[in-house]
Records
---
Amino acid sequence: MTLVFIYGPVASGKLTVAHELAKQTGLPLFHNHLVVDAVNAVFAFGTEPFIRLREAFWLQTFIEAAREGRSLIFTFAPEGTVAEDFPSRVQAAIAPFGGSVIYVSLTVSPEEQERRLIQPSRAAFGKLQSIDLLRQLRTDYNASLRIMPQADLTIDTEACTPQLAAERIASHLAGR
């Protein structure tokens, strides 16, 4: 079982690349907003119950997938409400079932990030669209990157299409 852990800042193309990777590989996509939106329906973002439930859903899903030998794609945006040891606990949780994690970092310039932020497709998923809030969150994101292990693969999504980014990830997977 391999967990393809795609992370990056807001509007770096995580979901777009992950959808393309799922098409190319047939792997299921467990994107961040599935759990965030479900838990946020009951508990406000960042509250203790929200944080506990979000992490429990994430980890339990990874464990069950590993137990079943089912590889999957996960999208993630490091931010201040996520425990610093979350990535290491993900690895520790799936290792007993033969699971491993491939970390894929997506990058994008601030200018392109702001251009993408206002795209209508983001509204369809209830994603952040405020440039002012994005600018405030950049500092939090950069500080939160310290919790992430060294990326196995880093892709500048400004320099390639989502299809090419997915091909690079799929090639990396095949080469393991």
---
Amino acid sequence: MKKNLVALLFMAVLLGSCATPKNVAYFQGIESLTAEQKAAMNQKYTPKICIDDALIINVTSSDRESVSPFTAPQYGYFQPGEAAIGISATTQNLTTYLVDEDGYITYPILGRVYLAGLTVNETNRKLQELIWETAPKAIVSVQISNFKIGVLGEVKTPDVFTVKTPRVSILDAVAMGGDITILGDRQNVWLVRDNNGEKEHVRLDLTDPAIFASPYYYLQQNDMVYVMPNKAQKRASQVSTQDGVRISLLSVIVTSASIITSAFLTLRGQNR
């Protein structure tokens, strides 16, 4: 009986190590939030121009001849294997202007223009004011064309995504990665951000509805999202192939010993 009990306890430990984590639901308790807490979740976010950004700059006017010097030939391409999200056919072939390491772009007629640190709307206004000196009816529209984020770790399809929209949230990133797998820790999602050459690391809990009010809810260019494995996955990864063989062998030995002991006790009882 003792041998049987040992075998059962051993198998229970093995099965327990593979148990499904409980914290798999997002935004737990969101239905009980107060109106004030929900109001705090409403955020306004506008990305700022960063070094290495590629900008699409479109200059239009009812007087086309006046803005023609500010309009470069339209062409463009995607990098091989690049995953484009939210792109439209009208923006595929527009010339882009790279923000150099000093924060400048080189633009026709205007020359070098400093844009790093400005929002998209601020960039629109600055370029428009400069162009108005020559073409007072010009309308300027700026878009970041290489807004990239990385999604790694315990997601279904880890990748680097190019996003054609100025507002990308941590939830958008998770969705692009095909959602977090059952082996991912939703309470332990790390955001790695480059702030002017300095790396910033922030842990986010996607099971907490407070994520909507987090200053890191919206992502910046080149942010990297990493989903940590949960405890069950960590334990599994610590068990090598040899350890697995040893555990299997030990299980067989314990089970065999239990069977032999039971048979011996049965025969002994019959001989009495």
